[in-house]
Design a protein that fits this description.
- It is a single chain.
- It contains 5 helices and 20 strands.
- It has 387 residues and is mainly beta.
- β5, α1 and β6 form a beta-alpha-beta unit.
- The chain is globular and about 80 Å long.
């Protein structure tokens, strides 16, 4: 019941409150299925997000948390005008009205076989108080309405939305020499190990018809975007690697702290398991990066702008290390569940893991940074040398 359709003159209206304090939040509607093809999942955003910087609400711009919000999703311009009047008549402030417009050019509207299917995602990341965020998720402070004009309104379609422009022209390239120094220092530290340096690229899997970052390109090509948003980059390591107990394998993920350089409000590295199912095994946020590169570059004046994080099956209490053991799988209410695909055998199998690196929202543009202005995150895989 998380998928819905929308008549051409209808609207979905949320009335509620933004999340507790966090580095980032957003609201976004995604096109899931097009009429005539309810088997090909798309997961394509209909436009750009309403996010922590662009949301309309009251209070200081520096604090968008715990604020009232009205959120309208509609494909009809006259419906939008009528709803704005109704919301004001109900006593709500004009300042809290947000509108996400669905153009029928992007996603044909209608109920039944002539209409598309949608869902709405509300993302929140790097909360100051995790318990407060979990309570917000368990008890969402929203009322949600479907508004159906009677009689039906004539066609008045919304135009294709304008997208925010990525990039400022300011790059991280001044830190390129420092990044190369960090690489050399990491290789020297583990000089007795067998090393493999992995590639990093924008995450796409052509044989599975998966593409991230470019929603309208994905729509044209009928590809699956997995609910990706333009508010972040999706860089992935390649090829997949192993973390076998018997080989003493581990990785060092390293790069620039994009939060510190001002290219993102936060960034992260996440380890995923299984080349086909992509289970999240653990995430490290950029607020955990400071100090992690200093052990490799002691005294280097630019080390604080870098990071280097170890990922291993056993960290042995080592600092700046993400330990990947058998996961304790629980839902939001704390109920345990099992996953038959993550077992001791599969966790030790070849090519089971890969990284995804995210850089969420450049403050100057309110959308993800242009990846050409970033220094790409990198990964080195280590294992004991074979005799």
């Amino acid at each position: 019941n998380w998928l819905w359709q929308l008549r051409e003159d209808e609207a979905i209206v949320l009335i509620g409150q933004t999340p507790p304090k966090a580095a980032y939040f957003s609201y976004q509607t995604f096109l899931t299925y097009l009429p005539g093809d309810y088997k090909t999942r798309l997961g394509i955003p209909v436009g750009d997000t309403v996010n922590i910087q662009t949301v309309q609400t009251i209070g200081p711009k520096s604090d968008r948390s715990n604020r009232p919000i009205v959120y309208i999703v509609t494909g009809n311009q006259e419906t939008e005008k009528m709803l704005r009047r109704a919301i004001l008549d109900a006593g709500y402030s004009r300042a809290i009205i947000n509108v996400e417009r669905i153009s029928p050019v992007v996603a044909p509207l209608g109920r039944g076989p002539t209409g598309s299917y949608f869902y709405l995602a509300h993302r929140t990341a790097m909360a100051e108080d995790q318990a407060a965020l979990e309570n917000y998720a368990k008890n969402p402070p929203y009322r949600v309405f479907r508004v159906t004009p009677t009689p039906a309104l004539p066609a008045d379609p919304q135009p294709v939305p304008k997208l925010r422009v990525r990039g400022t022209g300011e790059t991280e390239m001044e830190l390129y020499p420092a990044l190369k120094r960090l690489r050399q220092a990491i290789l020297k530290t583990y000089g007795t190990m067998q090393t493999t340096e992995l590639d990093t690229h924008i995450w796409w899997i052509l044989d599975k018809r998966i593409l991230l970052e470019k929603p309208y390109v994905g729509l044209q090509r009928g590809m699956f975007l997995m609910g990706a948003t333009r508010d972040t980059n999706y860089l992935a390591s390649y090829p997949n690697f192993s973390l076998r107990d018997t080989s003493g394998e581990f990785t060092i993920a390293y790069g620039v702290n994009h939060q510190k350089t001002g290219k993102a409000v936060y960034s992260s590295l996440s380890l995923y398991a299984d080349p086909d199912r992509w289970f999240g095994m653990g995430t490290v946020l950029s607020r955990e990066f400071p100090g992690s590169a200093n052990r490799f570059l002691p005294g280097d004046p630019e080390a604080d702008l870098l990071y280097a994080y170890k990922v291993a099956r056993n960290c042995n209490k080592e600092d700046f290390c993400l330990e990947i053991g058998q996961p304790d799988l629980r839902d939001i209410n704390g109920q345990a569940y099992s996953c038959p695909y993550i077992t001791p055998a599969t966790m030790n199998s070849d090519g089971f893991y890969f990284f995804i690196f995210r850089s969420y929202m450049e403050p100057k543009t309110s959308v993800s940074p242009d990846d050409n202005e970033l220094l790409y995150d990198r990964v080195i895989h280590f294992r004991r040398k074979q005799n």
